[in-house]
User: Fold these one by one.
Assistant:
Number 1:
Amino acid sequence: MTAFVFNEINFDNHEQVVFASEAKSGLKAIIAVHNTNLGPAMGGCRMWNYATEAEAVRDVLRLSRGMTYKNAVAGLPIGGGKSVIIGNPKTDKTPALFEALGEALERLGGRYITAEDVGTSPADMANVASKTKYVAGLGDRGDPSPFTALGCFVGAQAAVKHKLGRDSLEGLVVALQGLGHVGYDYARRLKEAGAKLIVSDIDEGALKRAKEELGAEIVGTDAIYDVQADIYAPCALGATVNPDTLKRLKAKIIAGAANNQLSTPDMGIACREQGILYAPDFVINAGGIIKVCYEYMNTPEDGMDAHVRRIADTLTEVFQRADADNLPTSVVADQVAEARFRK
Ligand SMILES: NC(=O)c1ccc[n+]([C@@H]2O[C@H](COP(=O)([O-])OP(=O)(O)OC[C@H]3O[C@@H](n4cnc5c(N)ncnc54)[C@H](O)[C@@H]3O)[C@@H](O)[C@H]2O)c1
C-alpha cells in the first residue's frame, strides 16, 4: 500500500495523507493535504461508493492536488486539500459519521478545512461543524454559484477579447451545456450582454425557463456539440472536451464552469492545434471558492466582487503566455499556479 501511495502519479509530494476511521459510526475517510505553503488547505469532502480503497486514494490525491492549483491561481491565502468518505451517500449517511469526520479534522488542528462536495450536503457539513470549526461554506451566508457564474462571464469576455479582438459579446452565439446553479446565472449574464444562447440540459423545467426568460434555443444533449457557435460553455459534466467532441465543436472558445473539462491532459494540446482558445477550468470557475474563502476567513466582502473579476486578468495572462511560448493554456495555467505556491 505504501509503495502504491508514494508512486501514485498524483501523490506529487503531498504533505500529509491521513486515513481516518471510527468504529462506532463506521467512518472510513481519507484526508489529503497536498500543499499549505500559501495557507491552510481547503477543499470539499466527497462521499462516494468507491469500488476499491485504491480508487478512493487516487481520487482524493488527484482532487487535493487540483485544489492547490485552483486556490493558488485564484490568489487566495489557502493551500490545497480534499477528503473522501468511502460509502454510499444514498444509504450510508448518519449524523455520527460526519461528527466522526469533524473529530478527525479537529485532530489535524486546522491544517485542512473542509466543505460540501459531491455526495455531501449542507446538513452533513452542519454535523461536521458540531465537532470542529474547520468547515467552510456552511450555506448560512449564501450560495457560491453566482460568483462562479460571474467568474465565467468575465472569463468569457477576456477570451473573446483575446481570440476575437472584440470588447463586446453582442451577437455572439454561446452553446451552453447545463442550466444548473452556475449555468443558468452565467446564461443570464451572457444574454444581458447581447449573446444568443443555444442550450442543452436533461431537466425539462430548466430548459423551459431558459426558453421563456432568456429566449434560448434548445437542442438535445448530444446535439450541443454540433451547433454553430462562437463559445462552447460546459456547465454540467466533466470530460466533454474529448477526441469525439473536438472533431465536432465549431466554437473557437471554450469557457465554462464544469470541473475537469479535458478528458485527458493532451486535449489541451489538441485545442491549441485546432485553434480553440481553452479557458482552463480551474482558473475560470474559481469564483465560488473565492466566495467560500472570504466567508470562512471573515474577510470584508467589499473586495470580493473585484477579486472574482480578476479571474479575467489571470486568464489574459495565461492566454498571452500560451501564445508567446506556443504552449497549451492548460499547461500555462499550471505554471502560473506553481509560481505562486512553490517556495
Ligand atoms: N457551484 C459552484 O459554485 C461550482 C464551482 C466550481 C465548479 N462547478 C462545476 O460546475 C458544474 C455545474 O455546477 P452546478 O453547481 O451548476 O451544478 P448543478 O447540479 O446545479 O447543475 C448541473 C446542470 O447540468 C444538467 N445536466 C446534467 N447532465 C447533463 C447533460 N448530460 N447534458 C446537459 N445538462 C446536463 C443538470 O440537469 C443541471 O441543470 C459542475 O461541473 C461543478 O462541478 C460548480
Number 2:
Amino acid sequence: MRDRKEMLAAAGTDTRLCHVGNDPMSYHGFVNPPVVHASTVLFPDVQTMETRSQKYTYGTRGTPTTDALCEAIDELEGSAGTILVPSGLAAITVPFLAFLSPGDHALIVDSVYGPCRHFCDTMLTRLGVTVEYYDPDIGSGIEALIRPNTRLVHTEAPGSNTFEMQDIRAISEAAHRHGCVVTMDNTWATPIYFKPLDFGVDVSIHAATKYPSGHSDILMGTVSANAAHWPQLKEANGTLGICGSPDDSYMILRGLRTMNLRLEHHNRSALSVATWLEARDDVARVLHPGLPSFLGHDIWKRDFKGASGIFSFVLKVDDRESFKPKARAFLNELSLFGLGYSWGGYESLAVMVDLSDRKIRKAPAEGPVIRLQIGLENVEDIIADLERGFRAAAGA
Ligand SMILES: Cc1ncc(COP(=O)(O)O)c(C=O)c1O
C-alpha cells in the first residue's frame, strides 16, 4: 500500500477531510479513533517513568483522541505542530502569552475580534506589554510602526464584523525583517480557503467552535505553528496547563469530515444573499470580501480560495438617532434568523454590531452595521425572513 500520508497530501479537499488524522488499523479497524478519557497514564517501570520514554505521559499532554485532531489540523494547515485549547479566545490569548514578555510591543489589527482587544487592553497591558492597533489596509506599511521592541504582529483577515482584508504576505515579510512573530486568526476562511503558513504567518489561530464544529454545540480553539515557533508554543501550552477535552476533540474531528461540503453551501448562499442585499435601496453597503464592490475584494480574489457564510451590511438610515431603533426593528422581526453570538453552525444568525472600541476603522456613517451568519437553510427562506426585517425597519 502506498504511503497514506503521501497519498492524502496529493488528494482533493474532500478526500483529505475524510481521512486526515485517521488511522483505523491502529484501533482494530474501527473507522474513528477512540475517545480516550484520561488524566493518569501508567508507566510499566520506574525507568520509563523517569525518562518519560513512552508516547503518552499525562492527560494534559495529549491522548490518542487529541493527537488525531492535532494531526488532522497539521495536515490541513501545513504546520509542524498544533495545540488544542478550550475556546477560540484561548487560541488567541495562549500564543500571545507564549511569545510576549514584559517590555515588548505588539501590533494588533484594528478590526480584530473584540475580546482579543479586551485581553490586550487589560491583562496583556497589565503584564507590561505595549499594545498598538494598526489599520487593516496597512500592507507593507506596517514596517513604519515596528519598534526595536516589537515582538508580535497579529493579523485577522477578513476582520471581525467589518471584514476588511489584509495583505498577509506583505505584512509577514515586513514583520520578519524585524524578527517579529506573525500570528493570524484564520477562523473565517478555515484552512480550506486560506493557508496562513503558506503566506508567511508563523502561528495560525482558529476558533474551531465555528466551521469545524459546524453545529453550535462545541467550544474549542486550535493553534498551529511552523517549525521555528512550535517548540515555544508547545512549551507555553504545557506550562499553562490549558488543553482540549477528548469529547470535544472527537466532535471537532467529526465536524471536519463534512466541513468542506458545509462551507461550499455557506459560501454559495452567503454570496447570493449578499448580492441580493447589494441591490436594495435600503442597504447602504454590503461588507463581503467576495463582492467586487468591496474594498478588499482584489486581495481576497488573489489569496483566498473561497468565502465562508458570515458578512455584514450597513442599513441605510438618514439620521443617527434612528440607527439603533431601525436596527432593533429589523432584528426583532426576524424569525428564521436567531439573535445570537458566534457563527459557523448550520443555522442563520443575526446581530447588531458594536464598533465603539475601534481606534482607526470607525463605524460606517450611513447606518447601523448588521452581521449575518448565513446557515444551511434554503436561500429563498432566508431572503423572505430578511424581507420581513426590512419592512419592519422601514416602518420604525
Ligand atoms: C474571529 C473570531 N476569533 C475567535 C473567536 C472566539 O471563539 P470562541 O467563541 O470559541 O471563544 C470568535 C468568536 O466569535 C471569532 O469571531
